[in-house]
TrEMBL record:
Taxonomic lineage: Bacteria, Pseudomonadati, Pseudomonadota, Alphaproteobacteria, Rhodobacterales
Source organism: Sulfitobacter litoralis
Identification of the protein by name: DUF2855 domain-containing protein
Top-level taxonomic group: Bacteria
InterPro entries xrefs: DUF2855
Length: 353
């Protein structure tokens, strides 16, 4: 079995290792991973690995080295359980590796990995969805877009749930990221809206964001001073503390809410000065899912998420080029570019172990 290990204290450092696969215990199934996506989302998993628990999903025996979770598709190749038969294909949360052993159970939430070490982790990450054989492109788009656009939609839903905190403008940081562009799209969809959408991005990505057509205004990070001084919400996808400090300092009391979502700029996360205005609050997508499940019943928010991400995926070829890399070891270079902030936002990277 091949795995990519990441230094938990220096997350740009990786190494590929080969380990001996363990025999299955009763009730277990072995899944061969067919493909998985790598995006800035995975950098956030590594950067928040200790704070949110992402390192706990796929533990290793090497102290200080962990496995970053990815989204992808796998096939059951060995089974000692009646729950899963050989040949079943499953979409879900996987290690950056060539295989995974799970303890599958069927319950009210569908198929889940009931392994003891995952029992206290968020349910949404323990669920696995059977998928049919189809074009590889379907697997690739699902892995690349579903997790990110699900987060985008849940942020949108959460903003509506809170009446956008009374904001006249919603500022989306790192608007070139797939989560950022998804949020801009969902915010743009209502025919009547009481807010303006401002995309914040780097100079190199400004034309890309502007070309998508879902922002009323696109500003670069050095244009933060040009923001309108009106009631605002900031949704931060990057975690860049310098950008955050300047935005807070510019808007001050006009900033009604500041939300932290991603950490793609993880190496610029530590605040250098106290922030003016509201204290940033971390947005945790599973919490919004749990809230809606309780309010609406099972399946309702999931159906909305599915419909929402598929709307954007339908036109993905217009703005995203999928690049497929062969072999687990290829993940090292792709992940490194993402972690160092060198990845092209137009590229959707897929690894085929």
């Amino acid at each position: 079995m091949q795995q990519i290990l990441v230094n938990q204290n220096a997350i740009t450092e990786t190494r590929a290792v080969t380990t001996q696969a363990e025999p299955l215990a009763p009730r277990q199934a072995r899944l061969a991973i067919e493909s998985f996506a790598l995006t800035s989302n995975n950098v956030t998993y590594a950067a928040a690995g200790f704070d949110i628990g992402y390192w706990q999903f796929f533990p290793t025996s090497e102290n200080g080295w962990g496995i970053v979770p990815v989204w992808g598709t796998a096939r059951v190749v060995e089974s000692r359980t009646d729950v899963l038969s050989v040949g079943t294909r499953l979409y879900g949360f996987y290690p950056m590796a060539s295989e995974l052993v799970i303890t599958p159970e069927n319950g009210s939430a569908g198929l889940v990995d009931a392994a003891a070490h995952r029992a206290k982790l968020p349910l949404i990450y323990n669920q696995y969805t059977p998928v049919k054989n189809g074009p590889a492109s379907e697997d690739h788009l699902r892995a690349l877009l579903q997790p990110l656009l699900a987060t985008s939609y849940l942020i949108y839903d959460w903003l509506q749930d809170n009446d956008c905190f009374g904001a006249d403008q919603i500022i989306v940081g790192s608007a070139s990221s797939k989560t950022g562009l998804g949020l801009c799209r969902y915010l743009f969809e209502p025919k009547e809206r009481a807010y303006q959408i401002v995309g914040l991005t780097s100079a190199g990505n400004r034309a890309f964001v502007k070309g998508l057509g879902h922002c009323d205004t696109v500003l670069t990070y050095d244009q933060i001073a040009d923001l309108d001084h009106v009631p605002s919400v900031y949704v931060d996808m990057s975690g860049n503390s310098t950008v955050k400090a300047e935005l807070h300092g510019t808007l001050k009391h006009q900033l009604k809410h500041s939300s932290a979502v991603g950490l793609s700029h993880w190496n610029q996360f530590t605040p250098t000065t106290p922030l003016e205005g509201p204290k940033p609050q971390f947005f945790f997508a599973p919490s919004q899912v749990a809230k809606r499940r309780q309010e609406w019943g099972p399946g309702k928010i999931e159906a909305q998420i599915t419909a929402a991400w598929k709307r954007i995926a339908a036109s993905a070829s217009d703005w995203m080029d999928v690049q497929v890399h062969e072999g687990v070891e290829a993940a090292e270079g792709v992940y490194a570019a993402l972690a160092k902030g060198e990845a092209d936002p137009k590229i959707g990277a897929v690894i085929r172990p």
